[in-house]
Amino acid sequence: MKNPLPRVAAIHDLSGFGRCSLTVVIPILSTMGFEVCPVPTAVLSTHTAIEGFTLFDLTDELPGFIKHWEKLGLRFEGIYSGFLGSVAQVDIVSNFIDAFSTPETLVVVDPVMADHGKMYASMPPEMVSEMRKLSAKAKVVTPNITEAAFMLNRPVPESMSEEEVKDWLRALSDLGPTMPVITSLPLKSRESQSAVAAYNREDGRFWLTGRPEVPIQYHGTGDMFSSVLTGSLLQGDSLPIAIDRSSQFVANAIRVTFGYSGLGHNEILLERSLKNLLSPVLSENYDLLP
């Protein structure tokens, strides 16, 4: 019998506290109508932005995990990878993609390793070159501007023109992905917005969307964006609609949270916004970059 729900393998860490990674991916994709099969890469007490976090690396467990799934003959409409617990996991995830994907499988790689101009505390420098290799396996890659700069061996820009954004997207596509997406863009033409740009190599078109910035940083928003993007594309949305839906969802979750004070650790109230994923696409706020 055909699985009545499209199935997504989610290769991410599990943080016990802090809405990010699997605690974001699972509720978002489940709400969007997908069976989420988690592949935990590490177990953390909290996300890595909270001082004193503990991390248990699951690298040694993953081969047996995958071998069991191979015996079961599992197949997936989507494979979505994010935070990896070690450099050695890159080859394991690459092999996972080879073993479980078909030409129709949507492979999304979010190269979670850096933000605000520097690597995350748990990430060694060699993760950059390894993420380049893994991105070659993806159809969609979703770095923030810091991760994109590291992957392209370029300085992290303070501001960018639209032509520069297009050049960066082409360069990311040259690494292998058909549809690169860059978030947190410091775009000159949208200085007061959180901008996202995307490129579809198959039709040669570039897309841009953005939402007004709120003067606070919340953790887990990148995971939220990439999760909604994955679900949207699997639902059949076009690339511009997918990036716009993702940006809109994150912006709404931020504004729902921003009205509260004293939450601590910049925790975003994801659960208050999940119902928005069930709404039809009523409007769009994207532009075609010439």
What does the model show?
This protein is α/β, with parallel strands linked by helices and 290 residues long. It has one domain (7-289): Ribokinase (UDP-N-acetylmuramoyl-L-alanine:D-glutamate ligase, 3-Layer(aba) Sandwich), CATH 3.40.1190.20. Helix content is 33%, strand content 23%. It contains eight helices and twelve strands. It has helices spanning 22-31, 62-72, 89-100, 127-135, 145-151, 162-174, 221-234, 239-258; strands spanning 7-17, 35-46, 55-57, 78-81, 106-109, 114-115, 118-119, 140-141, 179-185, 193-200, 205-212, 286-289. The protein has a ten-stranded mixed sheet with strand order 3-2-1-4-5-8-9-10-11-12, with helices on both faces. A hairpin with an 8-residue loop joins strand 2 and strand 3 (55-57). Helix 3 packs parallel to helix 4 and helix 7 runs antiparallel to helix 8. The N and C termini lie far apart (46 Å). The mean pLDDT is 93.
